[in-house]
Every structure is written in C-alpha cells, then in structure tokens.
Amino acid sequence: MLSLVVFLPLAVALVLPVVPRRAVPWTWIAVTVADLALIVSMWVAHGAGPGVAYEADVRWIPSVRAGYHVGLDGLSFPLVTLTAVLFAACAVYSIRQRHRVRAFAILFLFLETVCLGLFSALDLLLFFVFFDLSIVGMYFVIVLWGHGDRAASALKFFLYTFLGSLVLLLGFIGLYLGADPHTFDMVELTRNPPLAGSPGLAGLTLLAIGIGLGIKTPVVPFHTWLPPAHTDAPAAGSAILAGVMLKMGTYGFVRIAMPMLPDAWRRYALVFLIVGLVSVLYGALVALAQDNAKRLVAYTSVNHMGYIVLALGAAGYASGDVDARRLAVTGAVTQMVSHGLITGALFLLCGVLYDRTGSYDLGRFGGIARTAPVYSGMLALAAFASLGLPGLSGFVAEFQIFAGTIGSGTTAAAVTGALAVLGILVTAALFLRVLHRAVLGAPGELSGQVGDARRPELAAIVPLLALSVLIGVAPRVLLDTIEPLSAAVTALVGR
User: Fold this and answer.
1) What are phi and psi of 452, to 5 degrees?
2) pTM of the predicted structure, to 2 decimals
3) How many whole angstroms separate alpha carbon 155 and alpha carbon 356?
4) Residue ranges of the NADH:quinone oxidoreductase/Mrp antiporter transmembrane domain (predicted)?
C-alpha cells in the first residue's frame, strides 16, 4: 500500500503526455486527492500505535546492504500527510496555469513522489536518492516557471543545496563505515548506533550530517539561498519548497542524526541550541525589515525552522527533565506540520497578489480589505497563525517548544529558550505591520487591481487554514501520533 502511495503520482506523470490537454489539470488534481485519501485511510487504520507500519523491505544493492526499505511511524505519518495536502492544494491552485501546463503538472507529480519517498525511506541510500532528486525537480520549477532573476536564483538554490547533499553523503558514508556490520539500513543503525566508541569520528560525522541538513532546513548561516529562490519561484513552487522540502532537513535531524549519533548529539547539544536561537532572532529581525512580501515570508521560515532546531538541541541534554525533553521533540514535529500549512498558505496568498498586479512590493498596496475582503480575511488568519495566536496550530507547536526547552532543567536550554521568546514578539510586529499597511492602510497605487479570491484560490488556501485551526483547537489526534516517536527519540538520545 505504501509503495502505491509513493509511486502513484509518478505513474500518472508518465502517462500524462498522452492525456488531452484540457484534462491535464483535472487529472493532476484527481491523483493528488486520491493519494491524500489513501494516506488518510492508512493513518486511520493504523491509529496512534507505536512502531513502523506498512513496512516494505526489498534487497536493492546487496553488496553494501542497501535496500528498498520504507515504512511509516509517528514522525513520517504527519509529514507524509502534510506533503499530500500541500501538493493537492497546489494542484487546485494551479488549475488556471496556462504556461506549459503539461510539463508543470508532470514535474509536480514527480516532486510529490520524491517527497513522499523521502519521508517514507528507512534506508540512508534511498533517503539520499530522494533528497537529491528533490533538488533537481525544484531547480526546474524555478528556472522554467519563475520570474524576476529566476535563472540566477535557481542556480544558487541548486549549487547550495547540492553541495549540502554531497556533505550529507559523506556523513552517511561515515555511518555506514562505523556500523558493524556495514549497512545503510536506518532501523539497524538506530538499534545499534555506529561510532559509539569513537567520539572524534562521531563528531565529524555529525558535523557533516549537520551541515548537509542545516543547508536544507535552512539555518543561519546556511540560509542565503532561500530568499532569492522563494522570491523568484512561482507561488506553487514556493509553497512546496517551504511547506515540504525545508522539512527534509529537520526530519533528517530527528530520523538520522539524533538516534544514530546519540553521544555526539548530547555532546554538541549547545551548538544546536545556539544555531536555533540565532536563526529564530535573525530570521524575525530581517523579515521585519522587508518590503517584498515573498522575501518577508521566506525569512519567517528561517525564524520558524530555528524553533525546531532549538527544541531538538534542548532534547539533547540527557541530564534534563525527561518529560520536558519529550515535549520539546513533540513540539518540533508539530511545528514542522504547522509551518508547512501556514507558510504554504502564505506563499499562495502572495501568489494571488502577484497574479493580479505583478508585484510583491508591500509599499504599493493598502486598504485591500475594501476590494478583497475574503482575501484579506485569509491573509489575516494566516498571519495570526504564523505569529502563534492561541487557537491556531502555531500556538500549539511553539508552546510545546518553549515549555520543553525552558522546562528541561538545564541552564543553557532555559536561557536560550527564554531569549527565543523575543522571536515571537518580532514576528507579531512584522505581521501586524503587513496587515496595517496592506490590508487596513490608505489605498496604494496597486490596490485597485487586487480583486477578491477566486474559487480555485479559495479551494486551495481555505483547507490549509482550516487544518491550522483544527490543530489549534483539537490537536490530540496529531499529538497522539507524534508522542510515541518523541518518547523513543528522547530515550535513544538519553541512553
């Protein structure tokens, strides 16, 4: 069943060239919705049970003990579902796409298979294959359908993230060579962590993995590829890049770095705390200075991903309170889901502005609530969710992160957690500034061109915001799924 879910979009992409042009958008939408329905049914059938479900393990490259090994657990279930939701939303949003529609749909279906495969992979080599393919797919999305200086932005994105993947591969080779017997199987590497008796080599391996995943996340100082890539990518591309692909980095920290290198993670927990804190504050402050709506949202992604790294760093303090550390990991995974929904919606909302006016310049808008009340309402809800207003998913995630980090019982975690709270204050200021200037301010030169949201835009964005509200009001289903995984990761790091 899981292999069907992963490869169904790719299978349809292969036959899409013979589908009549008028049916291409509807075929794209149908397959993404069908894939989402399959994933939801699998989640419902599995419930919140522990362990790996829907596992498949087939020999692939026996000489290095690499296999086609996939499965779903409390970490991958939410992210696979998030992936399906965002790809379905982008398919609906893009129904009015007119430029190279067939190629656009094929590339997004390819990317969906790649992203689903990565979050399902239980083999390092398989993980790496999907990791690299995601870079190739997004490069072509930016360079072929982007705007502005799209060629330069796509090249910078590719070179940065491809370099990160090469460094990541070095880390994976270190794990492989340190395992006895040598293997790329994640389950085996988690059960018997490699390099346990070699702190120096374990530290170097963690450094390689940390840099590779840190570029993908991205954290400061490896974030500079992100703003131009987002600014010049099409709206659907930005939504997938921020909502899904950035999670590959933080997912890798929880799935690979923490359980496979627990001693090294504990030893360098302070480094991750500091990197997370710097990303939180830097991302929020730079976003506050932006007049380009897309760059603003891009820098808030640096801020929000910093919260995740901060929480995972706090979880590395084995001397801290176990319950608090477990809460921090749960909050980190919840933040991955919340950020995907909210930022995906924000980038699609930015896309609506650009479709109407050809500009992201916030200084040229004002008073759009008069001409686009529904659009303005969605923008306000997405902004409040991003700044962590209670009743929305951002609050649930950030409350757990701060409670777990500050309550861990260690001075370093408590101090960095307390300082990171300033990031929420700055985020609130920047989004209120946007709402004041663009939605409620005096009319701008482009305000008259901003018509209200159309039906495809509503059908794409409203479900994302509704899920954010649902998680904010009734998070139990999500948390019940994540918490067994959080307990397992915390126990592995603390052993």
Assistant:
1) -70, 170
2) 0.96
3) 27
4) 121-419
Interatomic CA distance for residues 465 and 445, integer angstroms? 29
Torsion of CA 157, 158, 163, 167, to 10 degrees: 90
Q: 319, 336, 335, 392: which is closest to 115 by C-alpha?
A: 336
The token duo for 84 is 């399906």
Q: Which residues contact 449 (CB under 8 A, 6 or more apart)?
A: 356, 357
How many Å apart are CA 446 and CA 366, to the nearest integer? Answer: 8
3-state secondary structure of 361: strand
230-246: burial string, b at 16+ Cβ within 10 Å, e else: bbbbbbbbbbbbbbbbb
The residues, any chain, with a CB within 8 Å of residue 331's CB and separated by 6 or more, are 311, 397, 398, 399, 400, 401, 402, 403, 404
Residue 363: what pLDDT? 87
CA distances from 167 to 112, 171, 405 (A): 24, 7, 29
CA of residue 234 relative to chain centroid, distance: 17
Query: What is the rounded distance in angstroms from the CA atom of residue 233 to the CA atom of residue 444?
Result: 25
- The token pair at 372 is 């686009």
Specify the residue for token string 């069908």: 34
Contact 149, 172 (CB under 8 A): no
Residue range 65-108, pLDDT digits in tens: 899 999 999 999 999 999 999 999 999 999 988 888 999 999 99
Cβ within 8 Å of residue 47, ≥6 positions away: none
What pLDDT is recorded for position 165?
A: 96
Instruction: Give the distance, in angstroms, between the CA of residue 242 and the centroid of all CA atoms in the same chain.
Output: 6
Give bridge partners of residue 58 from the DSSP assignment. 68
Q: What is the DSSP string of 316-338?
A: T-TTS-HHHHHHHHHHHHHHHHH
Check whether 319 has a pLDDT greater than 80: no
Q: Which of 316, 301, 307 is nearest to 271 (CA)?
A: 316
Question: What is the Cα–Cα distance from 459 to 177, expressed in whole angstroms?
Answer: 49
Mean pLDDT of the chain: 94
How far apart are alpha carbons 389 and 424 in whole angstroms? Answer: 10
Inter-residue contact 275 to 221 (CB < 8 Å): no
Looking at residue 495, its pLDDT comes to 64
